[in-house]
C-alpha cells in the first residue's frame, strides 16, 4: 500500500538530542537525591513524555519532586541544545526527497519541538504539523498520539508510516495500526539497538537517513 503520511518522532529521529537530554536529566535527578546515570535515563525514559518521567521518579522516591522540576529540565536542556544540538545526519535531504505528506508526533512539548527544530533548521519542513503527547490523554507507548496526528492530517492509519527510535514509540505505532520503521542511527543507539526495535514491532530498521526515501517509496 502506498504511504500517504510519514509521522516522524523528533528526539533521536530528526534531532540528535537523546544523549544530551539523558545527561541533563541524570544531573538534575541526582542533585535531588535520586541517583541516575545518563545510561539509566536512556534505558528507562527514551521515548516517553517528561510528565511520565516525573511520575516514574516520584514512584521510586515515594515523594513528589519539586514543583519546578520540569521547568529546570527544560532550561537545562535548552542550554545544552543551544551549544551542542545537531540534526540527524542526512535528515533534511531525506525529508525533502519524500513525495508524501509529513508531520512530527513527539513525546516532547510543542515548545521543545519548535526550539530544537528551529535550532537545526528543520522547523519550516514541518510547521504547522507538530503534534505532542501533551495534546492527548496518554502518551507513548499508548497509540493516542499517532492516532490523533493521523486524524488531524485526515489520513487513515493503514496509509501511515511512522519513523521511530524508541521501544515506546514503536509500540505506540503498532498499537495505532500503523507501519513503523525503526531508526537506529542516533548517538544513543548502542549495540543491539536495532534488534530491540524489531522485537518491539518495527517492520524494518535502518541506520542512515539517506535510505529513508527509498524505504517510504516501497510502501508497506
UniProtKB/TrEMBL annotation:
Classification via Pfam families: Hydrolase (PF00702)
Molecular function GO labels: hydrolase activity; metal ion binding
Superkingdom in the source lineage: Bacteria
Presence of keyword Cell membrane: no
Co-factor(s): Mg(2+)
Annotated SUPFAM superfamilies: HAD-like
Keywords for the protein's UniProt record, in alphabetical order: Hydrolase, Magnesium, Metal-binding
InterPro entries in the cross-refs: Beta-PGM-like, HAD-like_sf, HAD-SF_hydro_IA, HAD_sf, PGP-like_dom2
Protein family membership: Belongs to the HAD-like hydrolase superfamily. CbbY/CbbZ/Gph/YieH family.
Protein name: HAD-IA family hydrolase
Species name: Defluviicoccus vanus
Lineage, opening ranks: Bacteria, Pseudomonadati, Pseudomonadota, Alphaproteobacteria, Rhodospirillales
Amino acid at each position: 500500500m502506498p504511504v500517504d503520511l510519514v509521522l516522524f518522532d523528533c528526539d533521536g529521529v530528526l534531532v540528535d538530542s537523546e544523549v544530551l537530554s539523558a545527561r541533563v536529566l541524570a544531573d538534575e535527578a541526582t542533585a535531588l537525591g535520586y541517583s541516575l546515570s545518563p545510561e539509566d535515563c536512556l534505558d528507562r525514559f527514551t521515548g516517553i513524555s517528561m510528565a511520565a518521567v516525573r511520575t516514574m521518579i516520584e514512584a521510586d522516591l515515594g515523594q513528589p519532586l519539586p514543583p519546578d522540576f520540569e521547568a529546570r529540565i527544560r532550561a537545562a536542556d535548552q542550554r545544552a541544545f543551544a551549544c551542542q544540538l545537531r540534526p540527524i545526519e542526512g535528515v533534511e535531504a531525506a525529508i525533502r526527497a519524500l513525495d508524501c505528506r509529513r508531520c512530527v508526533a513527539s513525546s516532547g512539548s510543542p515548545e521543545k519541538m519548535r526550539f530544537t527544530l528551529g535550532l537545526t533548521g528543520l522547523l519550516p519542513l514541518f510547521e504547522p504539523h507538530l503534534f505532542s503527547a501533551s495534546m492527548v490523554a496518554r502518551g507513548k507507548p499508548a497509540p493516542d498520539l499517532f492516532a490523533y496526528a493521523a486524524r488531524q492530517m485526515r489520513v487513515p492509519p493503514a496509509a501511515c508510516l511512522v519513523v521511530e527510535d524508541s521501544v515506546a514509540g514503536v509500540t505506540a505505532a503498532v498499537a495505532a495500526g500503523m507501519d513503523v520503521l525503526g531508526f537506529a542511527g542516533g548517538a544513543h543507539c548502542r549495540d543491539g539497538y536495532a534488534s530491540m526495535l524489531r522485537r518491539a514491532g518495527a517492520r524494518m530498521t535502518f541506520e542512515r537517513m539517506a535510505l529513508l526515501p527509498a524505504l517510504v517509496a516501497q510502501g508497506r
